[in-house]
Request: fold
Amino acid sequence: MLTRIGHELSVGHDVLGREFIPFLFDDVFNERPSMKREPSWKVDDAAATLSIEIPGIKPNDIDVSFTDRRLTISYPTRGGTRTSTYDVSGDYDIAQTSARVELGILELRIPRIERKSTKVQVEVR
Reply:
């Protein structure tokens, strides 16, 4: 099970030094506001894949990490940083997570843990 915890935004400053939260203004100042999509999950028998639209962000500027089973993704936005967190269940092998950026989309793939059926014989005395 994958659960989105939420996202946090750092406070930025405009040219006059006033504080603002950049995410609130992204749609107003974005050239294509209707084209920007929310992060999306695709889950199948092999893995869970998260896609996030991040046009103009370089791979070196993206921080992806796990603390316990909580996935954290941070990247810069205009005037601040966007951070999203997700809880990842024990059904997924977080150590085998892969990430790539292609055509302005960050894609993370978290494979499922392969469960093998094993039989253990217990001696009865």
